[in-house]
Amino acid sequence: MKLLRKPTTTQPPVSKSEQLLFSGHLRHDKAWAQYADPLLRMSFWSMAKQFPAMLAVIARIARREDPRALAVLVGAQLASGVMTAFLLVSINGVLVALFSDGPTTDKLRDALPALLSGGAASSASVLLGCLIVKVEARLYPKIELACRTAYFEMMARVEMSAMEDKDIQRKLSMGYYGTDSVRRMLDSSVWVVSGLMSLTAAAVVLASLHVFLVGALALIAAPRWWGAVVVMRRAYASRHAWIDHTRAVDVLTYPITRADATPELRVHGAGRVLADASQDMGATAAKEKERLGSAEAVTEIIAATMSGTARVLAYALLWWLLVAGGMPLAAAGTAVFAIRNATGYLNTVVNQMNHMFEESLYLTDMNNAIKLGQEHAIPTGGSPVPGDGVRVVLEDVSFRYPGAEKDALCEVSLTIPPGKVVALVGENGSGKTTLAALVAGLYLPTSGRVSYNGVEVRDADRESVFGRVALLSQNVQAWPMTVKANVHIGDGSRPLVHREVEAAAERADVRTVVEELPHGWDSIALKGFERGVKLSGGQWQRVGVARALYRGRELNIVDEPTAALDPRAEIEMFESLHELTGDGVTSVLLITHRLAATATADVIYVLHEGRVIESGTHGRLMAIKDGHYRGLYELQASQYATTTTGTTKVPHQREGCA
Ligand SMILES: Nc1ncnc2c1ncn2[C@@H]1O[C@H](COP(=O)(O)OP(=O)(O)OP(=O)(O)O)[C@@H](O)[C@H]1O
Question: Start and end of every ABC transporter domain (predicted)?
Answer without folding.
Answer: 392-634
